[in-house]
């Protein structure tokens, strides 16, 4: 399902590989991992206990190209990967838009691949970037599927044969025309990218209806709770509130930094708290996670749009507004 969804994004997908005669699974998969520019591992209870999956995920992590995702809840991740943020796809049903965590996966893949997609042109696939995207299905020696991964493979040369022509759009083009075709494709992609970004709806419209209490904010690029905790608490209590919060299917909430809070301020807001929609506050002062020094911490006053400072462990009270984001 993930492989098909990524294909619909324009990336060519390689999965469920056929092993050539005389080759072994580990040999073929190792070659694919060496050629990859992006590896997505899907963690489940079964895959988290598989030595094969952990070995292949470690290869992606070691090169800094691993994107983990959870396809089941209550999965105990291997110790090596427990500190990596994993997007939650347990309730994802294959929809192309409208699911916050799937949007995170797509954005992370696009960043690793430089925002490019591959264009199919017969066999083998032909990519504008020269790096087509592939998705593999990890296997145990018994040929059982235990996880899916997304990888980017380099085109394989056909022995020592020189390339004199290329198949494109069902037509055979001479080698001298390839640079012109590439230039045309790059220009077309740039124009398409500009128009898509002009026509696509704001990020906040991608909010899943299953999560009415959270908001994906286009300005900060973070997922926020729409409202605060509802009453004044100390800074220590505010930290504990966010860390223990379970909302919208997420459990990695935190207090926002001072700079993140300041981006929510809107002096033109007419509800008295001067915070832009769709956020709602029940009080005017909100805690941040930013410390001024070893003795004090910052808060933000939305009533007047200014910073507040409070001594750590003091009895000063403010509201708690929680946030989370990719990589946390």
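Q: What amino acid sequence fits the structure above?
A:
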């Amino acid at each position: 399902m993930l492989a098909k969804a990524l294909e619909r994004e324009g990336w060519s997908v390689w999965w469920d590989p056929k092993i050539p005669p005389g080759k072994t699974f580990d040999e073929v998969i190792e070659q694919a991992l060496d050629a990859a520019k992006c590896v997505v591992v899907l963690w489940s209870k079964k895959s988290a206990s598989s030595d094969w999956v952990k070995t292949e995920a470690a290869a992606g992590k070691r090169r800094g190209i691993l994107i983990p995702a959870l396809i089941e809840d209550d999965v105990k991740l291997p110790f090596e990967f427990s500190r990596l943020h994993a997007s939650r796809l347990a309730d994802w049903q294959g929809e192309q838009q409208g699911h916050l965590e799937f949007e995170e996966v797509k954005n992370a893949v696009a960043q690793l691949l430089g925002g490019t997609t591959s264009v199919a042109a017969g066999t083998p696939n032909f990519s504008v970037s020269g790096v087509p995207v592939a998705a593999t299905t990890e296997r145990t020696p018994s040929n059982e599927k235990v996880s899916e991964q997304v990888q980017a493979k380099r085109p394989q040369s056909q022995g020592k044969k020189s390339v004199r022509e290329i198949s494109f759009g069902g037509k055979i083009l001479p080698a001298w025309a390839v640079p012109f075709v590439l230039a045309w494709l790059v220009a077309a992609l740039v124009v398409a990218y500009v128009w898509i970004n002009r026509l696509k709806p704001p990020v906040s419209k991608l909010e899943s209806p299953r999560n009415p209490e959270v908001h994906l904010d286009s300005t900060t690029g973070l997922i926020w709770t729409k409202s605060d905790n509802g009453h004044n608490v100390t800074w220590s209590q505010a930290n504990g509130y966010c860390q223990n919060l379970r909302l919208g299917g997420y459990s990695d909430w935190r207090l926002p930094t001072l700079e993140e809070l300041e981006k929510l301020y809107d002096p033109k807001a007419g509800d008295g708290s001067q915070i832009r929609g769709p956020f709602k506050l029940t009080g005017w002062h909100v805690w941040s996670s930013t410390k001024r020094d070893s003795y004090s911490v910052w808060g933000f006053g939305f009533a007047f749009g200014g910073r507040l400072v409070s001594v750590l462990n003091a009895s000063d009270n403010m509201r708690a507004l929680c946030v989370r984001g990719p990589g946390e």
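Q: And what stands out in the fold?
A: Helices lie at 2-8, 25-35, 51-62, 100-112, 178-199, 235-244, 258-262.
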